[in-house]
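Appendix B, record 7
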Amino acid sequence: MLCHSQEQAHQAKAKLAEWLAPRGLVFNEDKTQIVHLKDGFDFLGFNVRRYRRKLLIKPSKAAVGRLRKRLADEMRTLRGSNAMAVVAKLNPIIRGWAAYYRGVVSSKMFSSLDNYLWRLQYKWATWTLRLPKTSSLQVKQHVDTRG
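Structure tokens (predicted):
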């Protein structure tokens, strides 16, 4: 809930606590906090924060870190597989993540993840194409499809 002052936020929290009590629900004090928008907060994988005079919602750093770890783990398990298996495994993960975060400020994050995924593909290709005479240029040509 967004309020204009900290006092107003405490009053709103008290009213909500009264409303929750007859239903047998209470606030989890470890998870419930009152913060200023300039400090921001994370909620459902999003970071909500005011930068100067604009309120921006971005993917949270924790969510991006979880995605990077998942992609790295998947690529590690796919070592030695063919390219179609890699695409079939990673495509639903990437499309789902992009669909979830496409409505917020995420273009820089998408660009960063694109570069990270390219590096993962390069590592996968060097592992998969471990031939004695394979040069790094041949590996880059095998991986680079961006044109």
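Remarks on this record: The CA atoms of residues 44 and 105 lie 15 Å apart. The beta strands are 41-43, 46-51, 54-59.
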